[in-house]
């Protein structure tokens, strides 16, 4: 049978021609976005982990802490009571520079594009600010836990944050291997941290322990942690649902501060010096394996946050440049408030 002359009219004659070069590339119709970090610190919802204050002016807000005073004393009738000594210590939380995200979208490109470019970028502006604030809350929480005891005039203002340290020859995976023994070692440290909180009279309700996915995997080796009859909250190995551990509600996060080969300096972590420290496992204070934030529901919190201007979104058309300009902005600041309500389980090498 002879071949017919079927012209390959979709070919362009190039060397890499597969015969379909002139065929139209059709659009799928949707601009996809990658998955983003879940904000468990900033988007608090029903889980308060910091004390919040909305303000309209000012750059610094002072708060005072009354030191623990002298004990009760016996009194003899007729003896004049002149008043026992006491002390008050002040500290400040300052507002940071405005935090912004912004995009400029060309009018012609947007006109020609066969997908919606503007709305995903507007959503991204707000999301990236929330992610940055999520990291800053986490860093401030660790710094609160690492705050040392403060005294004044011979009185203890507070005992500082609560820290449990695991010393090892390696990183977190060495201190807490993915085994039953590793899970037990972390559970023991969590119970020790809970005891320190108890000794500081931190309310037992509203205690949250933020852990990495690695720690969650390690804890999966211990069936008692994920037993509904023991944890008090739904905890199930099959569904990877987190329950409670040592009185803490377990929350997974990817933003616990750390330093590794891709993040070697504090300035890379955040340009603002307020949110810089050495979080490396070989550093002076080690790497956080878990962060506890407690007491916020009772009026105290390890972190204080002030907000001068809430998250605001803006879009306008620039006729001189023929572009759509979008931005998001927030003016806020945070700092250490009540460090005895913050705790850290850390690993040092």
What's this entry about, in short?
This protein is α+β, with helices and mostly antiparallel strands and 349 residues long. It contains 7 helices and 14 strands.
Mean pLDDT: 82
The first-level CATH class name = Alpha Beta
Shape: globular
Structural class by sheet pairing and helices: alpha+beta
Distance between the termini: 79 Å
User: Describe the biggest sheet?
Assistant: 6 strands, mixed
Residues in helix, %: 10-25%
CATH fold node name: phage-related protein like fold
Overall strand count: 14
Number of helices: 7
Uncertain segments are: none
- Strand fraction equals 25-35%
Tell me which CATH architecture applies here: Alpha-Beta Complex
Structure commentary:
By secondary structure, the chain is an alpha+beta fold. It has one domain (53-67, 87-348): phage-related protein like fold, CATH 3.90.1690. The chain is 21% helix and 28% strand. The chain has helices spanning 107-112, 118-145, 172-175, 180-199, 213-219, 228-231, 266-269; strands at residues 51-54, 60-66, 88-94, 99-106, 150-152, 155-158, 162-167, 207-211, 244-245, 248-252, 287-294, 303-318, 323-336, 342-348. The chain has a six-stranded mixed β-sheet with strand order 7-14-11-8-10-9. A four-stranded mixed β-sheet has the order 1-12-13-4. The radius of gyration is 28 Å and the shape is globular. 30% of the residues are buried.
Give the helix/strand layout:
Elements (H helix, E strand, L loop, with lengths): L50 E4 L5 E7 L21 E7 L4 E8 H6 L5 H28 L4 E3 L2 E4 L3 E6 L4 H4 L4 H20 L7 E5 L1 H7 L8 H4 L12 E2 L2 E5 L13 H4 L17 E8 L8 E16 L4 E14 L5 E7 L1
Parallel strand pairs: 1-12, 7-14, 8-10
Antiparallel strand pairs: 2-3, 4-13, 5-6, 8-11, 9-10, 11-14, 12-13
């Amino acid at each position: 049978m002879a071949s017919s002359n079927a012209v390959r009219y979709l070919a362009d004659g190039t060397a890499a021609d597969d015969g379909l070069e002139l065929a139209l590339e059709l659009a799928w119709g949707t601009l996809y976005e990658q998955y983003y970090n879940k904000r468990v610190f900033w988007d608090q919802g029903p889980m308060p982990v910091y004390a919040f204050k909305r303000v309209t002016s000012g750059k610094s807000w002072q708060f005072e802490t009354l030191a623990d005073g002298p004990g009760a004393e016996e009194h003899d009738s007729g003896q004049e009571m002149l008043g026992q000594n006491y002390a008050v210590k002040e500290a400040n939380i300052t507002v940071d520079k405005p935090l912004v995200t912004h995009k400029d979208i060309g009018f012609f490109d947007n006109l020609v594009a066969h997908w919606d470019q503007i709305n995903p970028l507007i959503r991204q502006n707000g999301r990236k600010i929330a992610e940055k604030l999520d990291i800053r809350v986490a860093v401030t929480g660790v710094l609160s836990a690492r705050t040392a005891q403060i005294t004044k005039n011979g009185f203890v203002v507070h005992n500082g944050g609560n820290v449990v340290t695991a010393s090892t020859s390696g990183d977190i995976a060495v201190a807490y291997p993915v085994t039953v023994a590793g899970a037990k070692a972390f559970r023991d440290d969590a119970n020790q941290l809970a005891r320190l909180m108890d000794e500081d009279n931190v309310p037992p309700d509203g205690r949250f322990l933020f852990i990495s996915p690695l720690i969650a995997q390690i804890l999966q080796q211990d069936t008692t942690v994920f037993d509904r009859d023991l944890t008090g909250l739904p905890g199930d190995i099959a569904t990877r649902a987190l329950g409670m551990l040592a009185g803490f509600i377990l929350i997974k996060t990817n933003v616990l501060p750390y330093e590794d080969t891709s993040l070697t300096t504090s300035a890379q972590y955040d340009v603002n010096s307020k949110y810089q420290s050495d979080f490396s496992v070989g550093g002076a204070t080690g790497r956080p394996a878990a962060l506890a934030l407690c007491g916020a529901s009772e009026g105290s919190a390890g972190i204080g946050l002030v907000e001068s201007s809430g998250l605001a979104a803006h879009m306008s058309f620039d006729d001189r440049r023929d572009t759509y300009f979008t931005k998001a902005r927030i003016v806020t600041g945070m700092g250490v408030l009540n460090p005895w309500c913050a705790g850290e389980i850390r690993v040092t090498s």
